[in-house]
Every structure is written in C-alpha cells, then in structure tokens.
Design brief:
five-stranded antiparallel β-sheet, 3 domains, Beta-lactamase, 456 residues, elongated, alpha+beta
Length: 456
C-alpha cells in the first residue's frame, strides 16, 4: 500500500468518470453555458415582494447569507448611529469586558449639545461592559468617542480600524470617519454592508448579548454612587411600546437630519434568524417597514439541508468510486455535499433552485467546488462539494480515541493498492509491446514476399 495525494488525482480522474457514469447528477450543458454564463436557471418562482417606505433596505438570512429582499441595497447612504455596531464590535474584540475605560474631557465636550448621550463626566471610570450597554441601548455619543480613544488613542485612528474591519466583514462600500455616526459627508455605508457588519457582530457572543438586551443596570462608578437602569431606544424590543415585535431579538437605532431614520434589527422564528436593515426612512415608517420585511421572510421561506435535500449532486450506490473500492482500498462515497443550509421558498424544493458551480483548485482542504444557489438574481446560500476522507475503519473509532494510524487515514490522502496500478500498467505495456511485435512481423513477411517475387 502507498498513499497518494488525492486533490490532483480527483480533479482529473473524477471528470472522466463524471461523463462515463453520470454519478454526480446534472451537468451544465454547452447550451446552458452559452445562455446563462454557466448558471443553471431555477424552475421555481420567487415570492412576490412587499413595498416599503424606506429608500434603501435589505433582508438576509443570518445563517445562510441568503438575500431574501433588497431595495437599493448597494446605494451609498448615511448610517447615523447604527455606526455604533462597528464601534462596539471593535471595542469588544480589542479589550476585555472587565477593564476600565476612563473618559476624557475631549470625549465629553466634542459632541453637539443636542446629540444623544448617557451623561458620563470627565474622569469617570466605567467598565468596558457597562460602556457597551451605554453605547448601544442609549446610543451615547460621548461613550463612542471614549471607546475609540481607549482602543486606538484617537477617534481618527479608530475610524481607520473601523473601515478596515468592515472590509474584513464583507462591507466593501463603507467608509467611517468617526465612531458615533454623527454626520460627515465622507461617513457612509450601504444597507448590504450594514447587514454584513451586523452578521459579523452577532458571531461575538459578548457583543450579541449587548445588542439583544432591552434593559440593563449600569454599575456605580468613581463619580456615581448608585446603579442606574437604562432601556433600549429600539422600540421593537420593549414590550411596553406600540412598535413591539415579539420575534425581534436586538438591533440598533440611528437618526440624523441627513440620514433620516436608520434601523438595524435581527429577529428569530421557527429556526430562522433574519437581519433587516432599513435606511433613509422616518419615525412613522421605519419600524413598520422592518416588521413587514420580517413577516415576508418568515412567511415565505424555509431552510433546507443541502446534504439531505439536494438530489442532483450525490453519488448512487452504483457509482464507480464505490463499485471499485478494492482499487481504492476505500468504502463509501468518495464525494459528499456539506451540511450547509440553503434558504428557499416554502412551496419549493432544493432541486428547483438554480445554481452555479464555482470550482476550487487550491490544495488547502478537501473542497472540490462550491455550489451557489439562486432564483434569478436572488442568492439563497451555498453548499460545499468535498472529498469524503472517512473510511469504514476510521468511522469505527471515536474522535478522542483515534490513534496515529486513524489520523493518518483521515488525512486528505487516498490509499491505493499499488499492485492494481502496477498490474494495469504492465497490462497496457504488454498490449503495446505485442502490437509493436505483431506489426514488425507483418512488415518482415511482406518484405520477404516481395523478395521472392523479384527472384522468380
């Protein structure tokens, strides 16, 4: 037995078998490629979309990345205080929750008199945890500047960090110049970018808890001797307010004259986790728009598992890879789909979704390709087509009891019986040699006959 790296083998070898056995299901035809640029079109229809007041908006599935609704979602807009989602995320990523933040006179005095604030005074020392709650629930601008100074020394340097971190989260059309969201012509984002930033923020458990709290008690400080209860400015989160929405779990509000009402909200229902961003709205409509979009998402979509619901990319038990397992010293399917979830219309199946196959030729892991699902221009999520490196022997071992041999088998190397390979090579060489010898003998006989004719 020898082990041969499978990545290069499978990319060439499986393409041949793909055509010979059709074991991987549907293949994009030349006609499909010509008409759709390599994308197989969906046969299902997309749910009718609602009308909203806000100038720009987006609704995404936080788990799958599916874009369920969008309106001018890539247009540059002013974010106002929803900026503070990025401010808080950077603070919690660069500091511990228990460390003390000392607020400078600059942080307190550099904001306009009518800007929202908590009421921190110069020299006050507040834990980072309490500062985050002031920042998000009260939308405190002096806290935003104080956190920026604490993390980066100056608000300007912190704003550069914010823009860079936004790009890492997939927000490529965002530029931050301050930590608060107070208006500046060069401080802008898009609805899509804010959804990506929020999606990233929710991956941090500590900060997700802050965003999800509708009330909090601020601890005493060196300047204030008593606790103080604060409430979230997001009206959809507080059950005593008219705009309360029972499935809303958290978010952030924003307002300036130039930005209008801006709102980021995330909600959960029946296993679906959605993020909604509405920009350039007003007080009367911003919460209603958000509710309408959430109801559209929850009522019209569902999540399905690619590995169990996809019927077009699996291998049957007649597959070449399984039928010839003695050649590969392997039991089970060689290729498998990941267990990623895809968000699709409730009355449809995954096999009705359009898709595009994006091949991965890197050697970083066992990934062969990414299958990206669509209906028209609506991205629904992606699944990964990968090598199945687990053999029957490995699956008999628990993860915490795998020895060196098991770990070796689990690697991205495929054991191949060298005698089968050598036997095949010898057989091919033998056929070639016999053919050559036969051809030479035939030529000699022909020459001999010609000579006999000459001497008759």
């Amino acid at each position: 037995m020898i082990k041969i790296k499978v990545k290069k083998i499978i990319l060439a070898f499986s393409l041949v078998l793909y055509v010979m056995t059709s074991s991987l299901g549907q293949v994009v035809s030349a006609e499909d490629n010509a008409s759709s640029g390599g994308m197989v079109e969906a046969t299902a229809e997309y749910p009718s979309e609602p009308d909203i007041y806000g100038k720009s908006a987006i609704l995404i599935d936080a788990d799958t990345g599916a874009i369920l609704y969008e309106k001018n979602s890539y247009d540059k807009m002013y974010p106002a205080s929803i900026t503070k989602i990025m401010t808080g995320l950077l603070a919690v990523e660069n500091c511990s929750l228990g460390e003390m933040v000392t607020y400078s006179a600059n942080a307190i005095n550099s904001i306009p008199y009518d800007a929202s604030r908590y009421g921190v005074v110069p020299g006050e020392m507040v834990t980072l945890r309490d500062s985050l709650y002031m920042l998000i629930l009260c939308s405190a601008n002096e806290v935003a500047i104080g956190l920026a100074e604490h993390v980066a020394g100056t608000e300007e340097e912190f704003a550069k960090m914010m823009t860079e971190r936004a790009k890492e989260a997939g927000a490529l059309n965002t530029n931050f110049v301050n930590a608060s969201g107070l208006h500046d012509d060069n401080h802008y984002t898009t609805a899509y970018d804010m959804a990506m930033i929020t999606k990233e923020a929710l991956k941090n458990p500590s900060f997700a808890q802050v965003l999800s709290s509708n009330t909090y008690w601020i601890s005493p400080t060196n300047k204030v001797a008593t606790e103080n209860q604060i409430w979230h400015t997001h009206r959809m989160l507080v059950n005593t307010r008219a705009d309360y929405y029972q499935y809303a779990k958290g978010g952030k509000t924003g307002y300036t004259d130039q930005a209008g009402r801006t709102l980021v909200t995330f909600a959960s229902k029946d296993g679906m986790n959605l993020i909604c961003v509405v920009l350039m709205s007003d007080t009367e409509n911003v919460c209603n728009d958000t509710k309408r979009l959430f109801e559209y998402g929850f009522n019209n979509f569902k999540k399905v598992n690619a590995s169990s619901d996809e019927t077009r990319f699996g291998q049957s038990h007649d597959s070449y890879f399984i039928a010839n397992k003695e050649l590969f010293q392997y039991s089970g399917q060689l290729l498998q789909l990941s267990s990623d979830y895809i968000t699709i219309p409730k009355d449809a199946t995954l096999s009705q979704m359009g898709y595009y196959i994006d091949y991965d030729v890197s050697e970083a892991d066992d990934t062969i390709a990414y299958i990206r699902y669509y209906i028209g221009n609506h991205f629904l999520g992606k699944a990964t087509l990968m090598l199945n490196t687990q053999t029957d022997k490995v699956m008999e071992l628990l993860p915490d009891k795998q020895n060196e041999t098991a770990t070796d088998v689990m690697s991205d190397e495929l054991p191949i019986n060298i005698w089968w390979i050598l036997g095949g090579v010898v057989a091919v060489i033998g056929v070639v040699v016999i053919g050559i010898m036969f051809q030479k003998t035939k030529i000699k006989r022909k020459i001999k006959k010609e000579r006999k004719k000459l001497f008759k």
